Amino acid sequence: MNPMGASDIVIEVAYIIATALFILSLKWLSSPVTARRGVFAGEAGMVLAIVGTLLNRGIVDYKWIAIALVLGTVIGIPLGRVHMTAVPQRTALSHAFGALCVTLVGTAEFYLRAPNVPKFLMAVLSMEVILGSLTLTGSLMAAGKLQEILPQRPITYKGQNLVNLSLLGIAIIVAIMLVLDPSRMYLYPLIVVIPLVFGVMMIIPIGGADMPTVISLLNSYAGLSAAAMGFVLDSKLLIVAGALDGASGLILSVNMSKAMNRSFTNVLFGAFGQEQTAVAGKEEAKPVRSATAEEAAAILAAANKVVIIPGYGMAVAQAQHKVRELYDSLTKRGVDVKFGIHPVAGRMPGHMNVLLAEADIPYDKLLDMDEINGDFPQTDVALIIGANDVTNPAARTDTSSPIYGMPILDCDKARTVMVIKRSMGAGFAGIENPLYYLDRTLMLFGDAKGFVGNIVRELSGGGHS
Amino acid sequence: MLAAFIGFEVIRRVSPLLHTPLMSLTNALDAIAVVGAIILAGEHKSTLATILGTIAIVSATSNIVGGFIITDRMLRMFKSSGAKKA
């Protein structure tokens, strides 16, 4: 081993500091107050690590590096400026980019080192490339579905799981063969191509409402493949960053699957969307009580405590700014307004919070399911906007219901429930919601944005008491 | 391993309020894979490695830049009801 030069020591120190900054960055993200400092720490760590790397004496030519860095920045800036409703597909796309990077580096490393690749190295390299390439196509598919370029309906066929699992199985067997004898270089393309196909197949059966889980899962895969790359390149910094990403993705997907009452193994094997529910024999139309914007406004104005439950329907209708106006005018009247947010509301974890924050609703009014559920019995009005399954009390009581056991927002415990909905159609899971037939429930039929707007107008127009 | 464990503990404490920024931030951090790509593109060991490395830098850099910009944009929107802003 040649002795460490001064630049090597500088690089080493830069990497250690960068690692520490990354961990601090996530620590600060735990509270909205310090979160922006967290982003700054992340940026500082990143700059330090890149500068440190550029000092590496092995680098003989900076031309391509410079071009690539500039090009990446040019692509990155518009990706950082997308509309907030488009954040899920942007995130999926960036998972794809990350996975592309990892796969390409892994491939290059393989061809540089082959056929003399040590067993351990080959094993982590295979893991890196398999996870990387399946994340690449999987994320592209997810982004396509979210952007509605691809059909959102889940596409299923018989034996789907068998096909998918055997694809993955073959990829792993090929990888093992390569580990045992890395000189079989002709096998290498297989551990890229098969997972690429698998990535597509994995996302085909997934519908829009499962996206929060899928995105978290892909996030985790992207992180794990980067961590594997860290082992290949013997870079502790990369191992830590990858592990952080992998861990956060994993935690989020476990959260999401819990919130959907899916077992985690079910999610791990990409077998979601499978539990297609047959709607149990349509019962005859039961009576529901509906109300106009005027009546709804009067009830809201008379309330002391209101909890608003937003769902993806609100985001689709772009109603969040109208909801803010409603929040403002009720707060001005001294009504205590809070928001109850289910973990799977929206198209990715925490998406609903971002949309409401964008509409200038203070974050301390946005409460998680566990925080808000105790409040419902003291709540005068629960106003549901574009949410359905997450409010379905059948999940608590009806053991035959497909969503039985799924944690829900207990809005049925509020004194009055109001539901803004376009029609009586069932939600994504195709399940009847008994909440709508309660005596205390008022259905407000209409487009979320228009209806909330009407309520606001009633509140401000007929405002004199 | 220790770092991963600390990371795990830290992330578990992030409130659901900030899960979307969390994901975009870890995504940006993950793009630190760019260091591997930089060395690959700069070493000139083979043409293939240089080409793949260069593409890898482009994709990772776009994640770094885009990821940090959007995370910061999102976090700037989170305001407490106490903080009155002009």
Key terms:
heterodimer, A: 465 residues, 6-stranded parallel β-sheet, 7% strand, elongated, B: 86 residues, mainly alpha, 4 helices
Describe this structure in words.
The complex is a heterodimer of chains A (465) and B (86). Chain A has 465 residues and is of the alpha/beta class. Chain A contains 17 helices and 6 strands. Chain A is elongated. Chain B has a domain at 20-77. With 86 residues, chain B is mostly helical. Chain B has helices spanning 2-12, 19-30, 34-43, 47-77. Classes of the chains: A alpha/beta (465), B mainly alpha (86). At the A-B interface, helix 1, helix 2, helix 3, helix 4 and helix 8 of A face helix 1, helix 2, helix 3 and helix 4 of B.
Helix/strand class of chain B: mainly alpha
Q: Report the count of strand segments of chain A.
A: 6
Largest sheet of chain A: 6 strands, parallel
Question: Largest interface, by Cβ-Cβ below 8 angstroms: which chains and how many residues each?
Answer: A-B, 107 and 76 residues
Total strand segments of chain B: 0
How many structural domains can be distinguished in the coordinates of chain A?
2
N- to C-terminal distance of chain A:
86 Å
Strand proportion of chain A, as a percent range, falls in: 5-15%
H/E topology pattern of chain A: HHHHHHHHHHHEHHEHEHEHEEH
